[in-house]
Amino acid sequence: MQFKFIDLFAGVGGTRLSFEKAGMKCVFSSEIDQFAIRTYKRNFRKEPAGDITKIENRQIPNHNVLIAGFPCQSFSHAGQKLGFNDPRGELFFEIVRILKGKQPDCFLLENVKRLKGHDDGNTLDLIIKSLSGNLDKLPSNINKIVSKKLEFSKNLNYWIDYKVLNTKDFGLPQNRERIFIVGFNLNKYKKSDIYNFFTWPKIIIKPTLVEQILEKSVDDKYTISKKLWSGHLKRKKRYLKKGHGFGYSLVTEKSIYTKTLSARYYKDGSEILIDQSKFNKRPRKLTPRECANLQGFPKSFKLDACSNLQLYKQFGNSVSIPVVFAIAKQIKKTLEKLNENKN
Fold first, then answer.
1. Given 72, 106, 291, 306, which residue is catalytic?
2. For residue range 227-280, what is the model confidence (pLDDT) as tens digits?
3. In 3-state terms, what secondary structure has residue 328?
4. pTM of the predicted model, to two decimals?
């Protein structure tokens, strides 16, 4: 049996690649960013559907697994951390709407690690309660729009578990922590069977070095300007005086990992700069291909559908493929066992 999945907030298709690699079939995807759509279409030869808020459940094919990296700006360190009181945070309830209407066997959601502690854990608690259909009492600080959207949670009945996983533990040299939330449909499977069959992937103890993602030859256009480098140095000095470590991060090919690649990398590259002092050059930014490598995309993934600026945003927003692939294998294995047990 080949399990089918849908990919919401698909970006450039990193999650799709991971689940297809695990042997599942994508039957629907949705993405709103016009530039991400270009890259997605270039690689998958099919344009994803657009704004998920305008797509009705009847337009979405039946599927076994729903996967979604729902917008994280509402919960991220870089954003304003408004949670569900940010319109982007409310997009989570589109997932709930589709789960209620389509009742897939399983789902996998991905977000920034900060979601775990946002609003003292209340945001994650509300997410888990809404996905499991256990909304007996709403927090007082939830606005009216969110309260209304929570009506979608009625009749949902999913067993939920979550875990924070780090990219550097899965063979890539990037310190990138993300929270993953998995759910299995209790209307279809017994809780005891799910407990017995599902386990999170084991951490891969594999030494990594930044050199594994670097290109052999890089154009000098990626070397940062004198003005930008001077600004980085001044800010770093100022931050150190204040007693914190903010500022640029310089790595060499022998560094074991980089900081987290972010969607704002295109601005100044400050979180990951490659040291070029041995060539008597200022540091340089990663190339878009190196960003793709840092997220585990295959060499065959095409990067010619839009500008470098957009590619930096896309890979900063994407998932780390080895991490999602490891989870996808566990989900597939679990669904196979659950279905065998039913028969």
1. 72
2. 999 999 988 888 777 766 667 899 999 999 999 999 999 988 899 999 999 999
3. helix
4. 0.91
